[in-house]
Design goal:
alpha+beta; Nuclear Transport Factor 2, Chain: A; 2 domains; 5 helices; 4 strands; 23% strand
């Protein structure tokens, strides 16, 4: 969940709390006569949180007439703790139902030894090694990248390839392993070089 989601939730809950306290202050509550807007203080608070787009504007529009009715038919509010618990329960339920708890996505599969992503990383490793070495202009190519084995835990692939530089070819062993599986980041590490 992002910050915008939590910002909206904070505004909705703040509106619900204000409505609850405002209805209690003016002794607005359910009276005889019924009607769509004839609700108790906690019902107004819950309606504001549960259906903010309808409940909050309805309360703001009807507030003056509700206060006038409460002046002649005041309703003593119930326990503040109970009213707040109802409001908090509604808010918590909505957070859970509408994205408050997210299930992490299944991490991506570790890239294959012969995959293009792995090939690019091997080329970067070779370029960095060439810059650091005695032959900075050397170009190294990797071909015949093959998976030799796979470890389940920790998840990694053991691979081989043929590295060619300046007409000379060598066998290379490398490994692809997770750096942060949840984030989908992995490393490629050259483990050994041998003559062909």
């Amino acid at each position: 969940m992002n910050a915008a989601y939590w910002s909206v939730q904070a505004v909705v809950i703040a509106c619900g709390i204000w409505v609850l306290f405002d209805t209690r202050k003016h002794k607005i509550g359910k009276t005889e006569g019924g009607g769509l807007f004839n609700m108790s203080a906690p019902q107004w608070g819950v309606a504001t949180v549960a259906l903010w787009i309808v409940g909050f504007p309805a309360y703001v529009i009807k507030r003056r007439s509700l206060i006038e009715r409460a002046a002649s038919q005041p309703v003593e509010p119930g326990s503040l703790g109970t009213d707040l618990a109802k409001l908090a329960g509604t808010a918590a339920l909505l957070v859970v139902l509408f994205g408050g708890w997210s299930v992490p996505a299944k991490p991506a599969e570790l890239p294959a030894c012969g995959g293009p992503e792995v090939g690019k990383l091997l080329e970067q490793i070779a370029a960095n090694a060439a810059k650091a070495g005695s032959n900075p202009g050397a170009s190294i190519g990797f071909s015949e990248r093959i998976e030799v084995s796979v470890d389940a835990k920790p998840s990694r692939r053991h691979c081989t390839a043929i590295a060619t530089a300046g007409g000379k070819a060598e066998n290379v062993r490398f490994r692809v392993s997770w750096q942060d599986q949840a984030a989908g980041s992995y490393t490629v590490r050259i483990e050994g070089v041998s003559s062909r």
